[in-house]
């Protein structure tokens, strides 16, 4: 079943963050992932306003999502992001089948 990575990012150094943005897709693609959203327009409709950059990735399964996050390729991207942004990353298992 599909798995998702939800990333919420506060960018502190936009120029350095561009380096991260050039490296992350290499690892995402290698481990079978794809972007579903990548910091596009958003609107908070309930709760505290979300002001962070939100990215949603889809992977074939939880093992692929974990392999991506722990990979040496993504490690290079994380290193580039270290001083450029602060983030929260959540790995989320999808549903086996739709509820209705």
Please explain how this structure is put together:
The mean pLDDT is 96. The protein has helices at residues 14-30, 62-70, 72-81; strands at residues 3-11, 34-38, 53-59, 85-93. Helix content is 36%, strand content 30%. The radius of gyration is 14 Å and the shape is flat. It has 100 residues and is α+β, with helices and mostly antiparallel strands. A four-stranded antiparallel β-sheet has the order 2-3-1-4.
Task: Enumerate the spans where pLDDT stays under 50 for 5 or more consecutive residues.
Answer: none
Average pLDDT reading: 96
Oligomer: single chain
**Gap between N and C termini:** 17 Å
Number of helices: 3
Q: Describe the global form.
A: flat
Strand order of the largest sheet: 2-3-1-4
H and E order: EHEEHHE
Q: Over the alpha carbons, how many angstroms does the gyration radius reach?
A: 14 Å
Question: What tags apply to this protein structure?
Answer:
36% helix, alpha+beta, 4-stranded antiparallel β-sheet, 30% strand, single chain, 100 residues
Q: Nutshell version of this structure?
A:
With 100 residues, the chain is of the alpha+beta class. The chain has 3 helices and 4 strands; from the N terminus they run βαββααβ.
How do the strands and helices of this protein lay out in sequence?
Layout: E1 3-11, H1 14-30, E2 34-38, E3 53-59, H2 62-70, H3 72-81, E4 85-93
Antiparallel strand pairs: 1-3, 1-4, 2-3
Helix pairs in contact: 1-3
């Amino acid at each position: 079943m599909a798995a998702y990575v939800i990333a919420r990012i506060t960018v502190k150094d936009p120029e350095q963050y561009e380096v991260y943005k050039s490296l992350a897709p290499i690892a995402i693609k290698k481990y079978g992932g794809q972007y579903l959203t990548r910091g596009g327009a958003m609107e908070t409709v309930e709760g505290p306003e979300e002001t962070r950059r939100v990215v949603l990735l889809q992977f074939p399964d939880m093992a692929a999502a974990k392999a991506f996050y722990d990979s040496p390729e993504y490690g290079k991207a994380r290193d580039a992001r270290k001083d450029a942004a602060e983030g929260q990353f959540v790995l989320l298992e999808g549903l086996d089948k739709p509820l209705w």
